[in-house]
Here is the input.
Amino acid sequence: MDPHDHRVGHIDARIDRHALVARLRAAGCVFAEDEADLLLLEPRDADSLERMIAARVSGTPLEHVLGWADFAGVRVPVDTGVFVPRPRSEFIVDAAVEGLAPGSVLVDLCCGSGAIAAAVASRARVEVFATDIDPRAVANAQRTLASAHATVLLGDLFGPLPADLRGRVATVTIVAPYVPTGDIALLPHEARDYEPLTALDGGSDGLEVLRRAIAEAPAWLTPFGRFLTEVAEHQVDAAVGALEEAGLRAEVLTPDESSLVVGWAQE
Ligand SMILES: C[S@@+](CC[C@H](N)C(=O)[O-])C[C@H]1O[C@@H](n2cnc3c(N)ncnc32)[C@H](O)[C@@H]1O
Here is the structure.
């Protein structure tokens, strides 16, 4: 049997994989073959599959078409209008998991779909709190984290967290919006057209949201607790400066195109 013959759902409609790959490629999908396979694996009827293909061909991000993303080995639901988790953020998950003692508290700020929190929770026994300012992201993250020991709250950064968490947070993870306002127009259209500005725009130098989170972090962290964040390479020095100004010891873990910067709380 040809493994590329797909029968869609329970109806007898065969979709020609080769034609689908050609259609996706013509629409500019770089990974047309992988995308075709993912679309054809969806257990949908022919009409809804055609609607998904049409959406993808018109530029909707694959993850929004599928309704999920594979992030750090976890299938994360991603709703329309919610930021699609990026593979580069998997570094934060690895670093977070490495230092977390069982039962400790993880706070994922700017949680979006809840991808980072869910990936950490899949590998470490932690109590998770996640916050986001966008109600769509919060609803999405609540679904993502439904089976984890997690509380997802709507609001600005640390604002909605219970006060008794102060001084008890072992690790903060945050991928804040970090694109400078002036660079938003340069983003790929999939980001500009399908992801909300609140998820992308980090103000004049891209660090406005992150700087506020850093300033508040010491009040929430345990002694030697960690604040893990991702910034662009050109923002590393400013992020390190903000961490040090807040009294955290800063370390840069991946001096790369996007960099993982860590702030350690002092004793
Ligand atoms: C770049 S996305 C990252 C989402 C998620 N952490 C991920 O990696 O997929 C930034 C997220 O920050 C949220 N956000 C922006 N400003 C915020 C604020 N002041 N407080 C809480 N969340 C905020 C946005 O709604 C968006 O979901």
In short: Confidence is low (pLDDT under 50) at residues 1-13. The first helix runs from residue 17 to 26.
